[in-house]
Amino acid sequence: MTSLFDPIKIGDIQLANRIVMAPLTRNRSPGAVPNTLNATYYEQRASAGLIITEGTPITQQGQGYADVPGLYTPEALAGWRQVTDAVHRAGGKIVVQMWHVGRVSHESLQPNGGKPVAPSAVIAKSKTYLINADGSGAFAETSEPRALDRAELAGIVEDYRRAARAAIDAGFDGIEIHAANGYLIDQFLRSGSNKRTDDYGGSIENRARFLFAVVDAIVAEIGAGRTAIRISPVTPANDAFDPEPQPLFTHVVEGLAKHDLAYIHIIEGATGGPRDHQQGDKPFDYEALRAAYKAAGGKAAWMVNNGYNRELAIDAVEEGRADLVAFGKLFIANPDLVDRLKNDTALNPPDKDTFYGGGARGYTDYPALENVA
Ligand SMILES: C=C(C(=O)O)c1ccccc1
Known about the structure:
This protein has helices at about 35-45, 75-90, 150-170, 185-190, 205-220, 245-255, 285-295, 310-320, 330-335, 335-345; strands at about 10, 15, 20, 50-55, 95-100, 115-120, 125-130, 135-140, 145, 175-180, 225-230, 265, 300-305, 325. By secondary structure, the protein is α/β, with parallel strands linked by helices. It is globular, with a radius of gyration of 19 Å.
């Protein structure tokens, strides 16, 4: 029987175990440049089978929060090289989550103070995180977006391709396309945010077109075995909504099946909230989603996330409902989470007040068991 603690090869990437550090925004990279503190944070957690970095914007247009690290300047790429080298020296594997926030942004973060971009000019009832002049951080209402011209879409697809190549050149073992949580790609998918009347809006096929263009471009550039994707079928995060998630995401995974991707990452329920959250008139069927993916020829590893504890994770893998389990808050507070889960030892509680912004406190100062007297 397969165990959560068994090795697994996902695409081209060999992992020591099936415990994944989920992407976690921490807002600790001023100037969008990864720094030595970031390298220490990731190195401390290198015993994870796989680290997925925090969301990392592919361009300034794709940035929606202050002090998140980018993937689009030479300084940032040099900073990421520090991180990947540190994680690899510690024996870990790491992929970068490639992010375009779309409408979940603020004019003060956009090129030339312009409007954020989106499939349609529909404001997100959501907040983003800005740094004030005195250095303090605060959440602020997102700005009203402008609708992307159809002619702009190829340029954004090229931005994803370029960033994927840069990620591999910076030492990452692969990339995860952020197609979840109400950001740009998810904004195209969901009818609540996509009101387009061209061939990128309306039908499910049209709303998924942009996602597949991004996936195809990245796979062509770096190979399917180093390419993964995160989706969140029913999350309400960032004002995401679609009344028919089952047919929508069935179409998505059937389309993803054409590439032998490294993994498919599924957020079950509301991100950071109830696992049984639903949109539309019936509960989402995750097992039916995976069955549809496999029926379409999909072979990628299946990664699950949201609210898993030790028991749920062990059972999900042993019962074949998942190949890998991603943990967020538990990895914030437990750099040695793998050992703690393996030995069923006590877990440090995460400090919510230091999740976003700041320095070492609540970031690199959580103790590993070996350091506890
Ligand atoms: C990248 C994020 C996501 O995927 O929800 C995020 C951004 C800001 C705060 C928490 C999470």
